[in-house]
Write a structure and sequence with these properties.
The complex is a heterodimer of chains A (about 325) and B (about 280). Chain A has about 325 residues and is mainly alpha-helical. Chain A contains 13 helices and no strands. In chain A, helix 1 packs antiparallel against helix 12. Chain A is globular. Chain A starts with a helix and ends with a helix. The model of chain A has no long low-confidence stretch (mean pLDDT about 80). Chain B has about 280 residues and is mainly alpha-helical. In chain B, helix 2 packs across helix 11, helix 4 runs parallel beside helix 11 and helix 7 packs antiparallel against helix 9. The radius of gyration of chain B is 22 Å and the shape is elongated. The two termini of chain B are about 25 Å apart. The relative contact order of chain B is 0.16. Classes of the chains: A mainly alpha (about 325), B mainly alpha (about 280). At the A-B interface, helix 1, helix 6, helix 7, helix 8 and helix 10 of A face helix 5, helix 6, helix 9, helix 10 and helix 11 of B.
Chain lengths: ~325, ~280
Amino acid sequence: MRKYLVKRLLQVIPTLFFVLLITFLLLKLIPGDPAMVILGPEARAEDIARFRQQLGLDKPVLVQFLLYLKRVLTGDLGKSLIYKQDVLSLILERFPTTFVLSVSALFIAVLVGIPAGILSAVKHNSFTDLLITVLALIGISIPIFWFGMVLIIVFSLKLGWLPAVGLGSLDKGIWDVVKHLILPSFALGILSMGTITRFTRSSMLEVLRQDYVRTAYAKGLRKRLIIYRHALRNALVPIITVIGLQLGNLLAGAVLTETVFALPGLGKLMVDAIMRRDFMLVQGEVLFVAVTYIFINLLVDVVYAVVNPKIRQSYERG
Amino acid sequence: MTFRRILKSKSALAGFVIITLDLILAIFAPFIATHSYDEMDFMYVLAKPGEGGHIFGTDDYGRDIFSRLVYGARVSLMVGVVAVGIGALIGTVLGILSGYFGGFLDSLIMRFMDALLSFPYVLLAIAMMAVLGPGLFNAMIAIGVVMVPSFARVVRSAVLNVKNEDFVIASKVLGASNLRVIFHHIFPNIVPSLIIYSSLNFAGAVISEATLSFLGLGIQPPTPSWGSMLSEAKDFLQVAPHMAIFPGLAILLTCLGFNLLGDGLRDVLDPRLRT
């Protein structure tokens, strides 16, 4: 297990390096003089000169990249132009909202997706199967920001059951916050719901075809027991990976959901940064999400190795 | 033969029909649209569907929503074709280089692709657009670039599958050049994967374009795009929900079409990939 962990950790290093290279190159794409563009039209000439020196814009590109690496590794993601604040502290301030939204979206997606997938596999080739398959496909084809609007129209504006925008306040009790989170989490979760359903279905179908399941049936065990105890346990292993990978996509999807539901998270920060051309903030946020995503993947792989001895052993032998 | 098998797959057929309808809308837009896409009917601002001869109603400028949807199909399909083209072309070249030659080049390319994949799909496109500036051309490039790594991976694994087949080795032994082996023996074998992934990625491109335009980064007014129509609709959910409903349905149906086609093609062309 330790061998596997070390190997997997070492694999992260080149990926991180390239991610940093990409975020560095992102600002290189700016047409014109980056210092002037980043600081905006109101910047004084001496500020621009100082900024240019800070980023090493007068030096060769390689040196600029090394300077960027050094800044990032010391936790300095630059300063936001519109908020006049450290980019990293801004991100950390907003991250909890986005995180809670993403996790509750994932929760809803798993809660609906896995049972739907099981049902679909168990009733293979029936009408229920067809219905679930089509719904899952709609789930992955739907633009989540539009789905969010539809939810607002139906559940807030027409029925008046749930609030449309904002985060609610903890002072009014936890229920107020939960109420505000239901629609955005559902809107965001629909995407992963489809993926998880489809994956659970195919994984279950695969397992139900195995000899040991047939043996269990032959032994006369109850269907329920076979499905949940024998089949699902093995089918769940690959599903864990898919669920883990969803979290990264949900963090990005939150950009859109937060825009529709006016939630003060990373996504809202990102959109504001883009609209007001705050490039340091855009760069910092993109880097933050990518790095978070990489570490979630790492965590998922480790969990996967823990639940699946085959992977672990192949590393221990080799 | 294969084509007949594809049409037998209900999913592929359904997808095919939806996409054909989209194509008809896009190509014959001027004949199908009942109004011009930027004509403002001040008598009927925010008209409900059916009022004043506007089938799907009008938007906050009194523009006919049905006609804007029809013209919007052009933008969606154009972005899809160009973006998938860029992604497939660059991805195929990188995937073949990586899979065929292996070694350090393979590691270098694949690590870079891994890094690109560490950015959640839309986020990288959004970031690129933020820097490049909004517009149709930039949107196509940004969406295309984001697709490169998934194509590269699929092509690479397809190449690895055929690379050590007897017919490839035989051709090398007979003295065929690398280029000849690649074009005559490797490439034809990766075409099925390419077709499947192009169809699935097309759905991704349509959503991505809508997403960028929704955030105000894609197609600029007054050119109608389904995403920008939704962006405008956002402020009128209370008074004119129809402004949001129809463009969203158009995006949903189109994506569904490409996903259905991709799924169906996968079942027919490459059953091993079935999920």
